[in-house]
Amino acid sequence: MKLSVNPNDKTPIYRQLYEQIASQVLAGALAPGTPLPPIRTVSKELGVSMITVRGAWEMLERDGFLVTRAGSGCFVAPINERHRQNKVDERLSSAVDALVSDAKALGVTEETLLELIRSRY
Hints:
Blueprint: H1 13-27, H2 39-46, H3 50-62, E1 66-69, E2 73-76, H4 81-105, H5 110-120
Antiparallel strand pairs: 1-2
Helix pairs in contact: 1-3, 2-3
């Protein structure tokens, strides 16, 4: 599992970590049962606080992406297809909402916006 952070990004570091892992889980790149590296290891490798990494791991667990096994660590949780699709829809909805809002503000027609999306897909 490859993780990186951008301290210059306006997105908080814990959120950057959350998004990267959640995306990998949703895409199937991290299979259920895959162990996550220890918080201390990630903290050292990325040069961030253990509290920051712990916060990301706790959010991931709260949202059903991870499970913690006492004495063993954190692992990718099994996610049923309905839950996975709901999470994908949630993530894409906010991006689409922002895109549509920007397009409307710029006077871009629906047809032009769809054409732009198709050309990049």
